[in-house]
Amino acid sequence: MITTAPALTALETVDRLAAALADPSTAWPGGRPYGGRSWPQSLAGGASGIALLHIERARTGHGDWSTAHAWLKAAVHGEVSAAANANLYFGAPALAYVMHRAASTSSGYLPVLACLDTATLTLTRNRLAAAHQRITRGERPSMEEFDLIRGLSGLGAYHLSRHPHHEITSDVIAYLVRLTEPIPDPAGLPPWWTDVAPSGVLHPDYPEGHGNIGLAHGIGSTLAVLSQALLGGLTVPGTADAIARICSWTDQWRQGDETAPWWPGHLSIQQVTDNQVHSALRPRPSWCYGVSGTARAHQLAGLALGDPARVAMAETAILSALQDPLQLDTLPETGLCHGMAGLLHAAWRMATETDNPEITAQLPRLTDRLITAVEQSDLNPELLDGQAGAALALHTVGTGRAPAPHWDTFLALA
């Protein structure tokens, strides 16, 4: 994917990062050193996320299974949560996600995976029942009902990767289709509009809630998961129509021009009323709310619908960010969520998907930029915002591959 010298430099950097994160007792000493999300079973900030790095290295022949196993042991330490708030990023589903990748190469993890699967299936069925009841009552959804990190788009991403032909997978896709079906609304708001602020709680700045476009907490993840289902041959009635509905709404709010399109991360009722998004509200090109995630979702949608114009538009959107120094300067962080690693990996995915030479040509420069930033940063072991995620992005561009089951499914990028 990238030339030999930058690839070797990337892999050498990953080797150093992986060595610093080799021992759970020193790299991640237990407890909650970085706050609540660093519980062992947290994918975003805990041991399970760091395990994912070492599993991917072992699966591709660049690391050893003993290190991956040590981190998996740390990840399952203590009582595993299968409560109503468990999700792709926390508890039994997060551990099942990581174990699935380990079990793809080592059958010794299959018994543990089976137990985690059972808990995740039960949790998903319960979440689906509650979501359908909410729709039947005619209420607006909460963000955690359908988003990627906490909701059913995330659980759908897991099931689509783990067992694409299981009944539960079709059931989740059917719910996501229903989520997009029009409902009477005097303001013409989409059915995924929430009553809360982007923070997930009521706030006076968002008196009538907001519409979220991003991949982490918005309809972007639903678009990506539905598109991946259709591309994978899962034929749930209405899937293509649901994809088209989401595309139509996000097209309405797409900004810029044909050479540099972009989307706002979210919309307030005032913006909808005024039918205007100020250019100052352009989000940085991050994965969570920016073009890194949204462009990939639209590329997938274009491929799923057989719409080459949408594919081209999505690729132009990320290319314009990659070529704009001012946009790149808004990403000083190194992580997957808010930083350069997310942009690099989304660009790699998009370039690989359609063999786009223009995006591919930008990868070495961004790789070098990320390596420099990582080497100048303090060690933060987290997957989502820290070195583990940056290492995975660098590992992928360095090796030029990310074998199935893809490590980046938790980002809805594959």
Question: Quick gist of this model?
Answer:
With 414 residues, the protein is mostly helical. It contains 18 helices and two strands.
The secondary-structure element order is HHHHHHHHHEHHEHHHHHHH
Distance between the termini: 17 Å
Structural class: mainly alpha
Total strands: the figure is 2
Mean of pLDDT = 94
Largest sheet: 2 strands, antiparallel
**Poorly predicted residue ranges:** 30-36
Strand order of the largest sheet: 1-2
Global geometry = globular
Radius of gyration, Cα only, in angstroms?
Answer: 20 Å
Percent of residues in helical segments?
A: 40-55%
Quickly count the helices: 18
β-sheet strand percentage: under 5%
Give keywords:
414 residues; mainly alpha; two-stranded antiparallel sheet; 18 helices; 2 strands
Polypeptide structure, described:
By secondary structure, this protein is mainly α. It has 18 helices and two strands. The chain has helices at residues 4-20, 24-27, 47-59, 65-75, 92-103, 110-137, 143-146, 152-162, 167-179, 219-231, 239-252, 269-274, 291-305, 308-322, 325-328, 340-354, 357-375, 387-399, and strands at residues 210-212, 266-268. The longest helix is centred in the N-terminal third of the chain and has 28 residues, at 110-137.
Write the layout of secondary structure elements.
Elements: H1 4-20, H2 24-27, H3 47-59, H4 65-75, H5 92-103, H6 110-137, H7 143-146, H8 152-162, H9 167-179, E1 210-212, H10 219-231, H11 239-252, E2 266-268, H12 269-274, H13 291-305, H14 308-322, H15 325-328, H16 340-354, H17 357-375, H18 387-399
Antiparallel strand pairs: 1-2
